[in-house]
Amino acid sequence: MFGGEGRDLAETELERAEKRYAQAKARLQALKNRESTRQRKLDTRRKVILGGALLDLAERDSSAAAMLDRLIRNLPREQDRKAFADWDAPSPAPSSSDPETPS
Fold this sequence. Notes:
Blueprint: H1 2-60, H2 62-73, H3 78-82
Region (Disordered): 82-103
Keywords: Coiled coil
Organism: Sulfitobacter delicatus
């Protein structure tokens, strides 16, 4: 009589422990997923900020404009280069002191 009861209690306790373990494991995975998402968003934000800064610099600095052009031409993936096919890259406005500007 007592032997069977003890076994049922042990199985119930084991089942509860397994359930708690599964819940903790799920919470841990959810936390890891949230952190991974946060890191990806931060990485994307950094890329957007740097890209904007580079475009702004290219509008003022011919060396930066040339570098931007080289970066685009040397993109390894054709589909990435195609994204810039009809795009007019920024370039500095010619100044009156620029020797390349006709007088």
